[in-house]
Amino acid sequence: MFGSFLKYAFRDITHKFGYSFLNILGMTLGIASALYLILYVTDELSYDKYHEKAGRIFRVQSHITETDDEFTWIVAQIPFGPQVREDYAEIEHVTRVFNFQRALFSNGEIEFTEEDVYYADSTFFDIFSYDAIEGSTGEALNAPNSIVLTETMAGRYFSGGKAVGNSLRAGDQVYTVTAVIEDVPGNSHLIFDGLVSRNSLPPQLGSWGNFGVFTYLLLREGEDPSQLQEKLKEMYGRYMATIFEGIGISIEYELMPLTKIHLHSDNAGEPQPTGSIQYVVIFSIVAFFLVLIAILNYINLATARAAKRAREISLRKVTGSSRRLLIIQFLTESSLLTIISLVLSIVLLVILLPQLNMLSGKNFSLDIFGRPVVIGSMIVIMILVGILGGTYPALYLSRFSPVTVMKGVSGSGSSRGTFRKVLTVIQFTISGAMIACTIIVINQLNYLQHKDQGWNMENVVTLRLPDNEPVSKMRVLKETLLENPRIKNITLTNSGIGRGSPKVVFNMETTNGMESRGINFVVVDHDFVETLELRMAEGRDFSMEFIGDTLTGVIVNETLAKRLNWDEPIGKRVQLGDGNQIMARVIGVMKDYHQTGMYNEVESLMLVYRLDNQIMYIKMTGDDPESALGYMNEKWTEIFPGKPFDYEFLRDEFMEQFSSDRNRRAVFSGFTILTIFIACLGLFGLATYSTERRKREIGIRKVFGASVLRILRIFTLEFISLVGISLFISLPLAWYLMSDWLENYVYRYEIGLPVFLWTILLIIIPTIMTISYQSYRAATANPADSMRVE
Fold it and tell me: For residue 790, with 0-12 CB atoms within 10 Å meaning exposed, 13-18 middle and 19 or more buried, which class applies?
């Protein structure tokens, strides 16, 4: 019996190729898109869950409150880790991770600049789960000057040979390789290539006033993190009150679950770009809508064929087929179409996986199709589309009466037509909302990228001091490079612009005398303002003509002046240096610029003057930049022989902060286009149904003199009205949802009329193009054919 159902289903698919092609195309695109979005969402939700003890691991964050400010750092003080382990029995292990800084590693003649190496305590592998490929992780970080490499980093220096027992050099220090571990998965908030033993550093390094360490706690089984977090309030009074109370600062520690860092952290300084739980929700909804549209498409296209299948169904009923058997037959057809579409969607994903990975910034491989979530999703989609999507057409088609069909009545009443129109409105409501949301996402990212940063990044090249070289050589390089006419200006600084800056407590002059404030500061030379084209609000810039600027001059931004209520900032006192022994004065106020990037508010900032710094910004004239770069390379090699000439364009550096949003924008835009296309397939089905049902009406109109243009207008207005209803629903919905989404940004684009005009245009044009073909065919058909009674 089932074999005959399959036989009839195959025959119907092959005999009605055009109809089958539309159905399979729509379902294939919908299922493939939904599957990829499910993969994307699952990957975002999986961050750091590969660790065996992930549910018990927490990162310590410091919430700092000042007299007039509060903020959260994702780091703790250096002594915090050992002390908290000693004080609280709820904690099984503690490990700290320090930034190693960018360094040149070498093995003989083989050398690479490494940016993802960290110091870590010996307990690191007691908390985090990484399999050893060579050696053992048990005591790998115990000894000073030991280093654990990932498989990729080991391959760079040892070319597949044995790494453990061999050594790498970084500057004057030699590190012994004690283990090689698997590469850190991409779904980790902390991706590293190497770990150097914390015991390589002086044991006395750090104090309770010295922040900057990622600190992770492994709680014992059954311990409540919220109770421990409450207890951690005791640590301030026990160890820090004597340091911070007198300067008006209090600290509370927060425990961030490891598995929530990627999607829920909105703090600056994360080691990797973070995700967004809102995007996870959005992409989950989009995946659901894609499957829903595939179902609605099948229903529309299947019921559109009702008139053509009515005679076939009636003949089967006359020859003895029951309604139950007909329902099974139609469900078999829908399930078979779904299975074919599912197979094709997998093939499509395999073919397009590299391009999709590039689009989304992910790194999925073919083994994803064996993951339980993918297999489960396929089963659910097959049930939803094949069974549920086929149920309504099966019930609808099987109800036809042989008597009414033989009389030439299709049996498709106005209520059925209304139902199909409702389905179309739903499809285009989804499409319209997605178009509007996509436009807003694109506009928001463009707004951030093109908003006035307060400085000029064009034609600026970045160079960094090589390891183990005296910083004074950078000044020599600066003076040498300025001899080239294609180089306009050069500055030296200690903090990359757009990448944040250190925050230190300074004594600042206020109306109440000298008071302590946490202030971000950047050390610069006298060409910083001019090279990056910062704007001065009042006062003057640093100058070589004023020798005192080196020790006693500072420049502040407008935010700092407002924060301290300085009506006349010039001349205000600031204490600098260890022990605040240097009394400096404000010599200038600069307009605010974005030192921390575009996802954070402009913070209070102070520029401190020093000639020798590690980061060089070179402003080129823009004339023949290749020649200028060649000159830089030549002089670099003379001053730093044997050191690689690694440069970056400042624009590229700054734009890196938008990489995650760019990837998400690309994914959202791509699947929005697919949603529109799939919805248009459904509209094509409805147009087919409508012209088939009204072909006699069209014939009569033509006999009485109606022109082709008038008939086209009748059909176009009918469908445009459906789209109009969908836009009436979708545009306010998109405005409401995206207004809430934009609240997550400090600097945000204002939703305006152009968004809605573009949405209307991008819906109307595909609609007209879709219905024109069927409408034109019906309008130009021979009236005699359409009026003949079969």
Answer: exposed
The DSSP secondary structure of 737-788, one letter per residue, reads HHHHHHTT-SS-PPP-HHHHHHHHHHHHHHHHHHHHHHHHHHHTS-HHHHH-
Q: Are 390 and 335 in contact (CB under 8 A)?
A: yes
- Side chain identity at residue 645, one-letter code: F
Taking each helix axis as running N to C, give the angle between helix 389-398 and helix 277-304, from 0 to 180 degrees, rounded to the nearest 10: 20
**Which one, of 251, 229, 240, lies nearest residue 66 by Cα?**
251
The sign of the torsion formed by the CA atoms of 383, 388, 389, 391 equals positive
Q: Give Cα 84 to chain centroid, integer Å.
A: 34
Nearest to 282 by CA among 753, 771, 669, 748: 669
Tally of helices (H runs) and strands (E runs) in the chain: 27, 25
- The per-residue pLDDT for 407 is 52
pLDDT beneath 50: ranges in the chain:
789-790
Q: How does pLDDT run across 320-352, given as a tens digit for each residue?
A: 566 676 677 777 777 888 888 889 998 998 898
What's the DSSP call for residue 514? E
The whole-angstrom separation of Cα 724 and Cα 712 is 18
Closest to 481 in 3D by CA, of 655, 274, 637, 605:
637
How does DSSP assign 701-728, residue by residue? Answer: HHHTT--HHHHHHHHHHHHHHHHHHHHH
Alpha helices in 578-655 (DSSP H): 625-639, 650-655
d(CA 213, CA 195): 14
* Rounded Cα distance, 10 and 18, in Å: 14
Paired sense of beta strands 173-181 and 146-150, if any: parallel
Contact predicate 262/180, CB 8 Å: no
* Alpha carbons 790 and 408: distance in angstroms, whole number: 7
Is residue 327 within 8 Å of residue 398, measured between CB atoms?
A: yes
Cα Dmax for the chain: 107
Short-list 452, 442, 447, CA closest to 749: 447
* Tens digit of each residue's pLDDT (9 = 90 or more) over 289-325: 888 888 877 777 776 665 566 666 666 655 656 667 6
- CB-based contact 418:327 (threshold 8 Å): no
Give 149: exposed, middle or buried? Use CB within 10 Å, 0-12, 13-18, 19+.
buried
H/E/C letters for each residue in 124-171? HHHHCCCCEEEECCCCCCCCCCEEEEEHHHHHHHHCCCCCCCCEEEEC
Q: What is the pLDDT of residue 321?
A: 63
Residue 38 near residue 374, CB atoms below 8 Å: yes
**CA 447 centroid distance within chain:** 17
Specify the residue for token string 């971000």: 520
Of the candidates 275, 297, 355, the one whose C-alpha atom is nearest the C-alpha of residue 36 is 355
What CA–CA distance (Å, rounded) separates 495 from 613?
9
Strands (E), 450-539: 460-464, 487-493, 503-510, 513-524, 536-539
CA distance linking residue 506 with residue 515, whole number of Å = 8
208 and 75 Cβ atoms separated by less than 8 Å: no
Strands 91-99 and 487-493: unpaired
pLDDT at residue 393 in the model: 66
For the whole model, what pTM was predicted? 0.83
Rg of the chain (C-alpha set): 34
730 close to 679: Cβ distance less than 8 angstroms: no
* Whole-number pLDDT of residue 790: 43
What does the block give as tokens for 383? 């049930």
533 DSSP assignment: T
User: Quick check: 345 and 31 in contact, CB under 8 A?
Assistant: yes
Q: Which of 506, 502, 495 lies closest to 66 in space, CA to CA? A: 506
Copy the structure tokens of residue 247.
Answer: 């300067």
Residue 789 confidence (pLDDT): 47
